[in-house]
Structure prediction request, 440 residues.
Amino acid sequence: MAASVRLLFRRISRLSHRNINSTADSFSRRPGCCFGPFSSRCISDAAEDRNTHFGFETVPEAEKAKRVYKVFENVAEKYDIMNDAMSLGIHRLWKDMLLHVMHPQPGARLLDVAGGTGDISFRFLDYVYHQQERQKRRALGSSQTLSWQDISEKYPAEDAPHESSSVVCDINKEMLKVGKQRADSMGITSGLSWVVGDAEELPFDDDQFDIYTIAFGIRNVTHIDQALQEAFRVLKPGGRFMCLEFSKVTNPVLARLYDAYSFQVIPVLGEVIAGDWKSYQYLVESIRNFPDQEEFKGMIEDAGFCSVQYFNFTGGVVALHSGFKL
Amino acid sequence: MLRNVLSRLVTESVRVHHHVNPAPFKLTLTACRGSVRNFAEVKDEVQTPFNSTLLEVLVCPLSKKPLRYDADTNELINEELGIAYPIVDGIPNMIPQEARLLQKEEPSPSKPAE
Prediction:
């Protein structure tokens, strides 16, 4: 409401400056809504004044990306520890739920955007590996009455386990470095790739991936609709978009507790553990600025996804949105 | 997960410097990291910085055209626009603003809207 009034005011001042009389009538008739020819001119002029939110601050759009980068550069080393401390380990459950809902099949290709330290990708590879084991066991189980030759023929080809792959894409090099170190220490050698890239401008060709995930990253993107359009582009037809993000808590009691916890406890933890109060202040503020479940669902549908649905976890603290490219 | 925690405890209490095997135990110790980074660098030079599947999937974020890998400068080159994306620590950096202009009069790689 305030934004449209501000836009109105700017338009009035600009129009009076240019002395265009004919618009005055149409203007008085439809106060508050954007109309075709004039809005485009006005918006192109307003591009340099366009602001966005960085937490509760208002910053120019060009600034936001830089500031978000700084935040994650600062917290990269302690990111995983902080996640455990802030969510009391519950973030692991949320991510496990994401994988559970995703239920990837062996051979699937995942694009893990804002994947940072690789949590989702590691779980994905693990899940697919166990799926494969289970399927193998089931296949062998059904062949108990066969001869040895027949059983050995049933063994899947050696390269099948390596078909599933995951590409971790993040705009921040530091986060990827931490993730790569984790992968090396876990001994993961194949099926995982790391790319520095911008979610609004993905360096991937069209129709490449089976699954696109973005976990706790989309609220940091300056132009969410562009990120959604890119997601639509790189997914194969039939591909699934999945977004895990903090969202609105519906229950009022829980909401009060959550707010108190967010604003009193989390920045303090940030200071104590990571030595960075401001980044975690940004974190909790950015959560408040993100659209709620229904609004975000609308944005995903606008990008072209079908069968969009969301699941609330922990009473709405986190929501998993899912859509398909059909 | 639990194994990692235990291994971290073990390394932090024992202060392993000569643990040459980089795979399981090298998580957060800076002292350890020195010796292990050499190992990782050697590994990087021996193997290609990224596997071929990634090269098939990667395109220039601006023009969405395929890229050419240049082993000498360790960059991914877009001939058409005349820009080169660096590869740092085996991770290709596909941010347009960080790409290097090759020595031609091509349009600047940075996008104003970003």
User: Anything to note?
Assistant: Residues 119-141 of chain A form the longest helix (23 residues). Residues 19-47 of chain A have pLDDT under 50 and may be disordered. Residues 263 and 284 of chain A are 7 Å apart (CA to CA). Strands of chain A lie at 51-54, 57-60, 109-113, 165-170, 192-196, 209-215, 235-246, 306-313, 318-324.
